[in-house]
Amino acid sequence: MREAAFVKQNKDKWATFESALSNKTKIAPDVLSDLYIEITDHLSYAKTFYPKSNTEIFLNSLASQAHQKIYKTKKEPKNRIIGFWKTEFPTLFYAHHRELLIAFLTFAFFTAVGAFSSANEGDFVRSILGDGYVNMTLENIENDDPMAVYKQMGEFNMSLGITINNIKVAMFAFIYGVFLGIGTLFILMQNAIMLGSFQYFFYEKGLLWESARTIWIHGTIEISVIIVAGCAGLVLANGLLFPGTFSRMESFKRGVINGLKIMLSTVPFFILAGFLEGFVTRHTEMPDWLALLIITSSLALIIFYYIIYPRQLHQKTNL
Fold first, then answer.
1. What is the count of structural domains for the chain?
2. Has residue 78 been placed in a domain?
3. Exposure string for 111-136, b = 16+ CB within 10 A, e = fewer
4. For the chain, what is the largest distance between any 2 Cα atoms, rounded to a whole number of angstroms?
5. Has this prediction a pTM greater than 0.70?
6. In 3D, which of 65, 82, 72 has the Cα closest to residue 29?
7. CA neighbor of 215 nearest in space, from 159, 291, 104, 297
8. Would residue 26 be called left, alpha or beta, if left means φ above 0 and alpha means ψ between -120 and 50 degrees?
9. Spatial separation of the C-alpha atoms in residues 70 and 164, rounded to whole Å
10. Which of 44, 73, 102 is the last residue of a domain?
11. Mean pLDDT per 10-residue interval, the chain, length 319 residues
12. Domain residues for 46?
């Protein structure tokens, strides 16, 4: 865009902003903050395409004045932590539902690939899950306790170990986004194929329901937030690949920051999934209705927080 066209397109906003800074127009601090974000975006664009121009000098002056005014008048929320999970993150995450959909479809596709491959290649399950795990599970099935693997460790140690491992997997899914998103998709593929193979293995043994009602007690949240972590990796990759009006470095920084916020949102859910796997999943004798209640409640929580609630906040702020 030519500089003159850029100025003509945005000069009214700049004039409104400048008027607010000089107290000629009264604007609420939160509104002023939103305008400030837009001005800094324009400044970044001007620095990239019109370096050392009058436009850059003017916008830099506006941004400097605004920074002082905003942080002098804007009240910080009393509880920053609650504010992050209640408002800041869901508002941010709405803009990344596309990346979430891509992560979900990738995971669903490769889960089907894992199940299909297991059905058509005899040794595929062993190559994915390992001989040790398969042999142990076959022995548990013979002992009429196919889900005994969830009872081998103490509750706390198992919960802690699983939580740390899941967060590690999620961090890899996020960090590998730096490889243009291919690394993130690879991590999702690995875990999805493992899940598909695992479920088909029990289906083949006539234990699909027994396995599903057990593993999805913790797996509903665990798998869901691994997909969300994959979304974070794709957000990072998107910032690197598609800078838009920003410089590539600025766009990458924004992708990293937004991806880290998405990752931070998953931590309580990973802790909850670890708790369920360590303390609840082992109770394979629980009635079906209770297992289903836990599974459906977990799914409802994930869908509400990551899909419905962000949409509700977006609609409220755009009325």
1. 2
2. no
3. beebbebbeeeeebbbebbeeeebee
4. 81
5. yes
6. 72
7. 291
8. beta
9. 40
10. 73
11. 80 78 68 76 82 79 70 58 89 94 98 96 92 93 90 89 94 96 97 96 94 95 97 95 85 93 96 95 93 97 97 81
12. 3-73
